[in-house]
């Protein structure tokens, strides 16, 4: 029986792909089973999963299911794959990652009354800024020939690139422990572990013929 009552809608989609060169496919550690056997999933897929978890406040999904279309190289390493994630409360997410498609780094978060989109969520198009668009209660015009409510565009600038900010954060955490006797920061290992748990579940789902895997 269908439930037609209004309910919150939550969907997250992420995609990170790039077209690797023939030299990459032959020699890069990311395509060697004895060096980085997770391939595209362990490289670009990690960012997709982490972005999804960020969008849901790092709540782990109930289950993970790999999507059709998984591609392996001759050595059995993943070069393209994707998965769907499902939460207990109905949230849904999907991601795709690949070494065989044009450079794309998108994440879209869709709610009942709004949409947030970022087109360069891993490496920004411009080193000193990042952009995103937000649509709130978007709808068509009266003749349905265009949009009545346009998404707003936003740009966030920074004096330091993200790589420098990462080093600054890391060195600050170390200095705080060394100089002030602070305890080890649990945030980053916790988030990394959650990301790895989802990634491992995707791998298991692929190995089991796209079966759902409970977390």
Automatic annotation (TrEMBL):
Domain GFO/IDH/MocA-like oxidoreductase, chain residue ranges per copy: 12-116
Q: Which InterPro entries match?
A: GFO_IDH_MocA-like_dom (IPR055170)
Alphabetized SUPFAM superfamilies for the sequence: Glyceraldehyde-3-phosphate dehydrogenase-like, C-terminal domain
One Pfam family, please name it.
GFO_IDH_MocA_C3
Q: Gene3D superfamilies given for it? A: Dihydrodipicolinate Reductase, domain 2
Concerning its family, UniProt says: Belongs to the Gfo/Idh/MocA family.
Name of the protein described by the UniProt record: Putative oxidoreductase
């Amino acid at each position: 029986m269908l439930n037609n009552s209004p309910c919150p809608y939550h969907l997250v989609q992420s995609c990170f792909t790039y077209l690797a060169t023939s030299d990459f496919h032959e020699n890069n550690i990311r395509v060697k089973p004895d060096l980085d056997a997770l391939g595209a999933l362990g490289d670009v897929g990690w960012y997709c999963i982490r972005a999804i978890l960020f969008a849901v406040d790092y709540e782990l999904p109930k289950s993970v299911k790999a999507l059709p279309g998984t591609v392996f190289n001759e050595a059995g390493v993943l070069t393209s794959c994707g998965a769907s994630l499902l939460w207990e409360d109905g949230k849904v997410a999907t991601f795709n990652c690949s070494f065989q498609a044009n450079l794309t780094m998108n994440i879209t978060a869709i709610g009942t009354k709004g949409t947030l989109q970022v087109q360069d969520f891993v490496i920004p198009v411009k080193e000193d800024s990042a952009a995103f668009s937000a649509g709130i209660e978007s709808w068509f015009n009266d003749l349905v020939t265009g949009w009545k409510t346009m998404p707003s565009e936003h740009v966030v600038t920074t004096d330091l690139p993200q790589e420098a900010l990462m080093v600054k954060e890391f060195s600050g955490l170390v200095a705080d422990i060394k100089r002030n006797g602070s305890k080890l920061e649990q945030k980053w290992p916790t988030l990394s572990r959650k990301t790895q748990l989802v990634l491992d579940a995707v791998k298991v789902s692929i190995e089991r013929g796209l079966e759902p895997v409970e977390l």
